[in-house]
Specification:
mainly beta, Immunoglobulin-like, five-stranded antiparallel sheet, GldM_Ig-like-2
Length: about 220
Amino acid sequence: MPRILNSFFLFISFFSFAQKDTLSVIKHTSEWIVNQDCRVVYRGLSNKFSIEVPNSLSFSVSGLGLKSTSKNTFEINPGAGTELNVSVQIVLKNKTKKVEVFVYKIKNIPLQLTSLNFNKDPILRMSKNNLKDAVVRVFFEDKNLDFKFIVLEFTIRIPGQKAIVVQGNTITKAAFEQINRYARKGDDLLITDLKVRLGISLNGFFCKFTPVLITIL
């Protein structure tokens, strides 16, 4: 199950003469947003928001790619462009009408990277002993995204040897024995062909992860 992470609140008020208790509140509720101050929506993801306007008679919301999913809850699937405006049309209790506009930057889903033992460099130099029980992880280079990838399988390729398929996210004892036996100083080992489970939908977006190249010292 995806973990619901920290959301962000964005407050914008127009018209200095308007009532101070009618500020709109937009709460980003997507599981993958970690930066509370992030004003970003992503192409290829369902960007979920809850919108409240305290002390109003009514309000409506509009925006390109925006649709209502339930009461006060909305989903945005941005298309082309670099910015997206969410407009909140408000009727105050004194019957005054007001409009607030929230501006978000549109970004593409970034590259998915592979790390070994939290080392995010895709090209490593290490001894064979450092590969014992080493853990393979996957992450996005964009710090606003915090998907919980689960590595189910990966492949280790040693020059001149049959590929080693490893179940799970850790170099097993059997795999390490193969590395220890066949890998030589100066050999380049490759960790590739990851199979990963992701807890939320990417709207058909296909994840392709970078390999890790390890030069044996």
